[in-house]
Input
Amino acid sequence: VQLQASGGGLVQTGGSLRLTCAASRRTFTNNGMGWFRQIPGKEREFVATIAWNGGNPTYADSVKGRFTISRDNTRNTMYLQMNSLKPEDTAVYYCAASRYAYGSSQAAPYTNWGQGTLVTVSS
Output
């Protein structure tokens, strides 16, 4: 079971990045997926989640209207389009696969995690 997150980098305030999470088929097509982020010294926090069929996208209030989660089951890939980035979005971003068909804002249902990709937003 493999999840590989990529797409992080350094961007200025107001800029955009698209994160990608590539997954093995066994992990991906029947599972809800999510993005979380973590700042060093702080707890991991929920960013966005999406159901197995691309439905029910749900966002943290802090990113609503700026971030868009999507998935392409034909490519076993999930995306997080991040627009209007702010310095407070700086974190390591993790993708995760839930044990259920629908995602969650809680970390507990997620059984598989990618290695994380660093996003740095400069002011």
Summary: Residues 87 and 121 are 5 Å apart (CA to CA). The chain has a mean pLDDT of 95.
